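Input record (one chain):
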Amino acid sequence: MGTPVNIIVGSHVWVEDPEEAWIDGQVLKITGKDVEVQTTKGKKVVANLSKIYPKDMEEPAGGVDDMTKLSYLHEPGVLRNLKTRYELNEIYTYTGNILIAINPFQRLPHIYDAHMMQQYKGAPFGELSPHVFAVADVAYRAMVNEGKSNSILVSGESGAGKTETTKMLMRYLAFLGGRTATEGRTVEQQVLESNPVLEAFGNAKTVRNNNSSRFGKFVEIQFDKQGRISGAAIRTYLLERSRVCQISSPERNYHCFYLLCNAPQEEVERYKLGNPKTFHYLNQSTCFELVGVSDAHDYLATRRAMDIVGISEKDQEAIFRVVAAILHIGNIEFSKGKEVDSSIPKDDQAKFHLKTAAELLMCDPVALEDALCKRIMITPEEVIKRSLDPQSALVSRDGLAKTIYSRLFDWLVDKINSSIGQDPNSKSLIGVLDIYGFESFKSNSFEQFCINFTNEKLQQHFNQHVFKMEQEEYTKEEIDWSYIEFVDNQDVLDLIEKKPGGIIALLDEACMFPKSTHETFANKLYQTFKSYKRFVKPKFSRTDFAIAHYAGEVMYQSDQFLDKNKDYVVPEHQDLLSASNCPFVAGLFPPLPEETSKSSKFSSIGSRFKLQLQQLMDTLNSTEPHYIRCVKPNNLLKPAVFENANIMQQLRCGGVLEAIRISCAGYPTRRPFFEFLNRFGLLAPEFLEGNYDEKVACKKILEKKGLQGFQIGKTKIFLRAGQMAELDARRAEVLSSAAKTIQRRIRTHIARRRFIALREATIVLQSLCRGRLACRVFDSMKKEAAAVKIQKHIRRYDARTAYKRLHVSTLVLQTGLRTMAARKEFRFRKQTKAAIIIQARWRCHKATAYYKRLKRGSIKAQTRWRGRIARRELRKLKMAARETGALKEAKDKLQKTVEDLTWRIQLEKRLRTDLEEAKAQEVTKLQNSLQEMQAKLDEANASLVKEREAAKKAIEEAPPVVKEKEVLVEDTKKIESLTAEVEGLKTALESEKKRADETERKSKEAQETSEEKQKKLDETEKKVIQLQESLTRLEEKLANLESENQVLRQQAVSIAPNKFLSGRSRSIIQRGADSGHIPGDAKSTLDLHSSSINHRDPLEIEEKPQKSLNEKQQENQELLIRCIAQHLGFAGNRPIAACIIYKCLLQWRSFEVERTSVFDRIIQTIGNAIETQDNNDILAYWLSNASTLLLLLQRTLKASGAAGMAPQRRRSSSATLFGRMTQSFRGTPQGVNLSLINGGVNGGVDTLRQVEAKYPALLFKQQLTAYVEKIYGMIRDNLKKEISPLLGLCIQAPRTSRASLVKGSSRSVANSAAQQALIAHWQGIVKSLGNFLNTLKANHVPPFLVRKVFTQIFSFINVQLFNSLLLRRECCSFSNGEYVKAGLAELEHWCYKATDEYAGSAWDELKHIRQAIGFLVIHQKPKKTLDEISHDLCPVLSIQQLYRISTMYWDDKYGTHSVSSDVISNMRVLMTEDSNNAVSNSFLLDDDSSIPFSVDDLSKSMQQIDISDIEPPPLIRENSGFSFLLPRSD
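The corresponding structure, as predicted from the sequence alone:
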């Protein structure tokens, strides 16, 4: 451990604590060698100066992932770091290349899923967070690259997670080199399925663990030359054989004995078993059951596991018979026989067990008794049979039981290996060793001695590996390490195994003498090792001894050492069991060579143990080792409980502290230059201001402080133990001095500010007093002036009030009178107007209601009648459409319907003409009558004028008196009569006007009615046109069917003599013949894909014209293929190749044939062109062509009803094809304009109707779709490959930038230049994106596809950067966040320049990394609540992701802290709740490599394409067969 030096008052230190192992505090006082420390718990502790260690106050809040990075590498520092990381659910930590794994006792699925395995695949060791996958990856890469086998040593006590760690190792190795599962099971599954069997027969309860492995397991994963798993094998070592016969309380024997005793009742009765307490091998301990464990349930689980492994029912029954026999053998007791030194079964109970054991082993009971009680000695003269005394018989009995059990266990292992399947040709393997750890109990016997001996051997191997790694580190950094001594534990191993004077040799020697006891053995040890420093003789015991192991001193009780070490190889046992009638038992004991079976030989368990251990070490030495130390954080097996003392003991037993001790012997503190300058640059700021290299600056700082013994490497500085504390003490002095200076200045500033504030307050107080006095004088003057003013205003107010009252009263009176008059007038006018409106509205309502009812009724009647007729016609059409013969009837009916509609139209026209004539006549009559009335009125006026004139004359001529009276009377009568006549004329005129208005209104209504009828007439005409078109189509279909029937009939006649006609074809032809629609004549015209068929004899079909036509077509196709294989370029933004292909296919009518090879040749041409996957220009060119051609097909082709039918190929008659060709010039799919020159057909741009595609055309469309997706994926993946190396450099800022931060402001210009250099990687990505976009633009790739590509690329960037951020702690820093933020700004600027047309929503795909970086660079994180973080700052990130970023964050620039502990706790609670969900709570993102669009999406997004003016390439321009490609001249 590091030597604590320079501990001063105020230093933060670690001090030992009986409860928590180590507790931190601050030094209060130093008295000689004693130090008084104030702990963080509030109590004061006095400790020796040599037993306290300095505490690093600047350690990261989340700990370090590699403990070699600790400033102080000592026990409390290691413990603190592990505890800090464990609280953050960081269960893995490195110590160099050793992995420490702490069992979390909870599910953490997100750190073991496929995303995580993909991240660690091929990643350099130490680059990502510590993980078991990293160790497995290093082992696999070393095996593949160097061809050497590797081993992974997993150690730890039971419950520490060794099995789970082994499982994860095998999962990852299967992920890297997995093979096809055998019978649906992988190698990993098969190995893990064997665990229950091995645990049942090899695990037992010990003092500390309920399920402790009592053997070592070495799982070999075998690989072939390609690095793929080719097999596996399980090697077992060091089975604890003595446990079968001897156990001590509170331990148990092997689980299988208890499982069998709790088996179903019929099996217990079959094996004559009972309660475990009745068996000697089990009742030596008082523990028979385990808390929370059901032996009966485990028995059934073990039987199921045996089934899975492949052990047959017969073998299972034999196995448990052997187990039961061992229990019965243990109950055989002996007493003295009649002869001297002889023995016999003690009583009937012993005889019963003897007989039962013989029955179970299927051997002779007498032979079994003789094998236990007698020995045969072979001499040169004779064979002597010697009896054994009872004690020797017991030893013989126990030897037989141990031998049987050991052979049974070996058989199980061999069976499991044969089930898994080994590869004998495998040259390389990765072994995973799972073996028991160091044990130290209150009572330690022979078992603990053997186990600790094993761990000493493994620790020596471990120490050598650690020291080797240290040497490699020193050599890599090119420092001098020759004087560093390697402290080994060879002396302990010599003490145990050395010959002839080791403990095992002395034990074997004692076992060979019959009269030796454990006391004589102990005395022998005391005498032999009295001067040995590793051997300790206790003061108060005569038989115990202690050994100082690497993990601490262990006291052993030698009481049963001799008994447990004895293990005879007895020929009688071998002969007895090899002659068993049970094939299984006989197979466990195959016959031995004759020379080995002559006599009994003493066999020591200790010696055999040592031999097997040496074999294991030979295996490990032949491989490259890797170490995983599993740690159990608490004995409660609960999550989030960290028991310091327990973990320290495990770290000692696992050798981790020993590895740290080895590191401390050299250079325990290693710091990169930039980190050293960050921390200690303030000790000599002059070296930072100067233009020194980092390495030189570090050296000058150390030399200035007078340190000796340090080493300067290539990238790091190496400090001896204690030097870090020395530098920290000097740094603390500098910081303390600076703090005092700052305090002095601040206190001066505070005092002066207080004085200035007091002086200002005094002046303000004086001003206030003077102002107060002035205010009082001013108030009195103000009140006096106010009183005068108030009196004046009150008097004026009284006078004005009286006037206003009088004025208001007058106005009110006048207003009231005027209001009454106005209201009366208003009420009258309102009533009059309302009456008029009511009358008008009522009359309008009556007229409107009548009209609407009439109109609604008419429309409803018409609608129902027309609907009824239409439905009737629809039903008839449907029924008629089912049969070909009904088409003619439909034609006749439609013609009749057209005639009816024509007649109705003519009728409507006649009615409208008659109506207009009637209206004109009526208007003429009204005009005539009006003229007559006007004439009458004029006559009346003229006569009245004449009469008045006559009256005047008469008055003038008449006598004055008498005549006057008469004239007056006569005139009055005439006037009255004329007046009456005028009134009558006026009335008549008014009535005529009303009639004229009524007539005009009726004419308007008639005109509206005629307009409605005109509209209906137009609609009827449209329907007639539609019916005519449908009639034309039906005629065409009828003609098609007739021609097809004719062709099929002729084919049947031509093929029938050769008997090649299938039953399906016959049925089709027969149907055609029966339907009666085969025409008697077929016109011979041009058909590009079907031969012309004459009405003559079918055997006389013209073959020569057809052959020449096909040859010409093949030549044209060949020319087209050669043409499109060249780079034809673009016409505007339209790819020429796609347009030419489409035109040719459409002209040749390739879409409508049942068999053609042109599609396959086009697809093959595209496939050959894109074989060079690295040429993005070619890929973009073909993506543009393929997508354009696919768009044209999508908008042109429609599935034919017969396209998916049987492979019966149908031909159309040439007459029908000609009709369809002429018909095809009527309509085209939307967006496709095409000019055709076909024979004498000329004109402008004609449109093409949609083509009914046959099977080859639809298949071609599907293949083209697949190629569009394939080329898209190739282009996207090429860009990913191009930017992936740059992304690895973009997630973390180069370290030189961080070191430059401490070099002062004098380098601000240089820093700005350096910042530009740092963005170079990001600019490289931007450059790649820009070049890529230019390539796509140059090849006119549809913007829709460009947007999709960049959206997925930015998603890939987001995934890579975000996952790297979460897996690498050095990336989660403030300065790195600023670096990545600057790079993201470059990407945003690129998106802006690329515009939304091409970039689309690509920028939004970076939301995870943007929010994560935004979180890293915000200040005052501890003040943020979880709600603010999760909803405002980072709404996209999950709680797991936020938790990981928060715990990994560190500020290397300003020293700020992460979020508060309350926020961390709340996150942990939410994570615990989420972990219960079935959905995987992985914090890593997954890259989506799917195709993010469909053909419909592509079709909707692309604009219409006009291909009428595309110029054909020179290769085909002059060819007459391609004349249709030439643009037509208008």
